[in-house]
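We emphasize that the prediction below concerns an isolated chain of 79 residues; any contacts that depend on oligomerization or on bound cofactors are therefore not represented. The input was used exactly as deposited, without trimming of termini.
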Amino acid sequence: MVAELFEPGSGRVLSVATTEPGMQLYTADHLEGPFGPGDGIALETQHFPDSPNRPHFPSTELRPGAVYRSETVYGFGVR
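Result of the prediction step, given as a token string:
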């Protein structure tokens, strides 16, 4: 598991597991219209954004004929 969100009022839990080495978190602080700041969140699993420029980061190179596979599992529950 790489992340867990918990809402204490209802006991709802969101867990995230992934084969990706990184995750981006967006908190919707700049939403406008019918939704406002804090009304949403996104957890996006991915490679590290600067991977091509950092040799010590996991590689993002995909050679011709190679297959790219990634798995992300979102779990929902109640505590």
